[in-house]
Every structure is written in structure tokens, then in C-alpha cells.
């Protein structure tokens, strides 16, 4: 598995954001899916260069040990789609419930 810095960390994007953030503009991120997975799975909420360093370590470990499919699986199961809605399945259930309520349908999920 190729785990070069170019694959793990998008150096040009990070450099661009670093320069932009240094000019006093609104702070903006430049994280890959692997970095977001590491952040959401292993770290606390907040922003600091220390936390970003830990995120880099966990990202390297994730990319050394997990394949792309596993990274996406974990990412989709831990991402927050809305306040208190974690994971793609929870988001789909929430949206399905909202859609049925809006249409006045009382039918349950297909196959239930």
C-alpha cells in the first residue's frame, strides 16, 4: 500500500490553507477523508496544532493498516450528519421518517 505524504496529506492544500488562515481570514480546514476519520474516531472536538499533529499520526496508522473500503466504512458510520445524528444509517432513517411524516404515509420500511 502506498502511504506517501502526497497520498496521506494533501501538502499543497494544507499549505494553501495555512497561508490563508495566517492572513487573518476565516479559519478553514483541508482534511482528507482519512484525516477526518482519524479526527472523528480518536480525537476530541477542538482546533489546535497539537490535535492536528495527533490527527496526522492516527491518519498514518489508519492508512498503513486499513484499506480504502474500511476507511470509507468507518467514516460513513461515525460522521455527524446533523445534531445528534451519527452515521449514514441513522441519517437515512431520520430522512425516511421525515419524508413519510411529510407525505402523511403510515407505511413502514419496505420489507418490514
Notable characteristics:
112 residues; mainly alpha; Penicillin binding protein transpeptidase fold; two-stranded antiparallel sheet; 2 strands; disordered N terminus
Question: Which strand-content bin applies to the residues?
Answer: under 5%
* Uncertain ranges: 1-6
Q: Give the overall form.
A: extended
The CATH topology of the domain at 5-79 comes to Penicillin binding protein transpeptidase fold
- Architecture per CATH nomenclature, i.e. the level-2 architecture of the domain at 5-79: Orthogonal Bundle
Based on CA atoms alone, the radius of gyration comes out at 18 Å
Q: What do you see in this structure?
A:
The chain is mainly alpha-helical. It has a domain at 5-79: Penicillin binding protein transpeptidase fold (Orthogonal Bundle). Helix content is 62%, strand content 4%. A two-stranded antiparallel ribbon has the order 1-2. α3 (33-42) packs across α4 and α3 (33-42) packs across α5. It is extended, with a radius of gyration of 18 Å. The N and C termini lie far apart (42 Å). 9% of the residues are buried.
In terms of topology, how is this protein built?
Layout: H1 5-8, H2 11-22, H3 33-42, H4 49-65, H5 68-78, E1 80-82, E2 85-86, H6 88-103
Antiparallel strand pairs: 1-2
Structure summary:
This protein has 6 helices and 2 strands; from the N terminus they run αααααββα. The protein has helices at residues 5-8, 11-22, 33-42, 49-65, 68-78, 88-103, and strands at residues 80-82, 85-86. Strands 1-2 form a two-stranded antiparallel sheet.
